Target: Response regulator transcription factor
Amino acid sequence: MRILLVEDEPVLAEQLKSALERAEYVVQHVAEGPEALYQGAEQVYDAAILDLGLPGLDGLSVLRQWRAAGVALPVLVLTARSEWHEKVAGIDAGADDYLAKPFHMEELMARLRALLRRAAGQVSAQLKLGQLTLDTSSNQVTYAGTALSLTSHEYRLLAFLMHHPGKVFSRADLTEHLYAQDFERDSNTIEVFIGRLRKKFPASYIETVRGLGYKLVDPQA
Model:
């Protein structure tokens, strides 16, 4: 899952980036409003964490312009402002959730997980498909009750597919969601990760849709 992190305080930005990467998110960090506006409108992200007090263009303006342009990515607004009318302004501008500084990192991570689940139509922290289960709060994957050992890239790929069961994604689509913007991408590596996942639980869970890509299904359904 790719996250756009928009925060101009260097120390906090590094703390957030490190915490997100430890949780197996791919993070693109920007510190100024105009760059945030461009990234959100032109690049592919699964969610954004957006500070309101930004140089160049404030976060509310960024958010309003995203929404006016039809950018629908989930947005968690992060700000030092705590007055109720500031929260209302952020939500009315199109924010999906709001967190005032200072905050506990665990709360931010929980809110982000919930944001991603809601955007994908999921309601539980445990994503289940047949006997396959992914716990988004612990990054633990099990099949028929047995824990699976996955690499970072395998987990990221499976987590994205588990958030969107039954939907077909091309190799290019999956690559966009799994790698940082500056990573040298090769969509053929998706086939490698798909092959590895198929060896760790029944291969029938991941269907190849000829000419289109892959989708995650419950083979028992």
Helices lie at 10-22, 33-42, 59-68, 84-92, 105-119, 152-163, 171-178, 188-198. Residues 105-119 form the longest helix (15 residues). The chain is about 40% helix and 20% strand. The chain has two domains: 2-119, 126-216.
